[in-house]
Amino acid sequence: MDALQAFVCAIQIDNKHATAWMDLGILYETSGQAQDALFCYKKAILDKDGKLIIIKIFLLLLSTIR
Question: What is the pTM of this model?
């Protein structure tokens, strides 16, 4: 099983798995699939408990710029 399949399986099991959505977004982004990545990042904005994880995503994006 490759990373893409693992993230998709995790999301199928739990559609609100924010970390899986974020990691899938990173995978798409590094593969040059910006639209798919953006979709995943939007899905990852709220975790299961409704807590915003946008700051986590923002920090991750900042780290890629440096």
Answer: 0.69
Which DSSP string corresponds to 1-66? Answer: --HHHHHHHHHHH-TT-HHHHHHHHHHHHHTT-HHHHHHHHHHHSB-TTS-B-HHHHHHHHHHHH-
Query: pLDDT tens, 11-28?
Result: 999 988 888 998 999 999
CATH of 3-65, picked from 1.20.1530.20, 1.25.40.10, 3.40.50.720, 3.90.1170.50, is 1.25.40.10
